Amino acid sequence: MKIDDFIRDIPDFPNPGIIFKDITPLLANHNALVSCADQLAALSPKGVNIDKVIGVESRGFIIGGMIAERLGAGFVPVRKKGKLPYKVKSKNYSLEYGEDTLEIHIDAIQPGEHVLIHDDVLATGGTAKAVCDLVVELGGVVVQCNFIMKLDFLNGKDKLNVPISSLLTY
């Protein structure tokens, strides 16, 4: 199934000049959603047991959980500041139109665990880099970051020192 048929462009959102890649049509279509999760799980590194899949707030939660199920792995949410109820490790980061803070529970990743990080889009790389840093600080090993899409013109891959995969490239 062609996933890009279910990605909608929204001009000038959230700011003028930005073309937002909207995945809500993908999420609303059962067949497209299942196909997307299957395709992303298939991109996982072969021969590596994935212990945890991280889903990045908020769109990364939806398909990240589906990927974890397909890989027989646990699922870990990484959230924006103040959203997790237990003790957290925090990381500030820059994104294409501002700054923010991400948090993960301090016991979410055990030393040596193999972690796949999933988010919907790789743009400037700030979010993915912050999540990679959090995993490493907790003793985990990031084996791959995967995305529904990457926006190559923003050079986000240049901030990451881990394998990257995506279904779509713009």
UniProtKB/TrEMBL annotation:
Biological process per Gene Ontology, one example term: adenine salvage
Places the protein is found: Cytoplasm
InterPro entries from the UniProt entry: Ade_phspho_trans, PRTase-like, PRTase_dom, UPRTase/APRTase
Lyase is among the record's keywords: no
Family that this chain belongs to: Belongs to the purine/pyrimidine phosphoribosyltransferase family.
Pathway membership: Purine metabolism; AMP biosynthesis via salvage pathway; AMP from adenine: step 1/1
SUPFAM superfamilies: PRTase-like
Function: Catalyzes a salvage reaction resulting in the formation of AMP, that is energically less costly than de novo synthesis.
Domain Phosphoribosyltransferase: 26-143
E.C. numbers: 2.4.2.7
Gene responsible for this protein: apt
Molecular function via GO: adenine binding; adenine phosphoribosyltransferase activity; AMP binding
PANTHER family on file: ADENINE PHOSPHORIBOSYLTRANSFERASE
UniProt keyword annotations, A-Z: Cytoplasm, Glycosyltransferase, Purine salvage, Transferase
GO cellular component terms given for this protein: cytoplasm
Superkingdom per UniProt: Bacteria
Record-given protein name: Adenine phosphoribosyltransferase
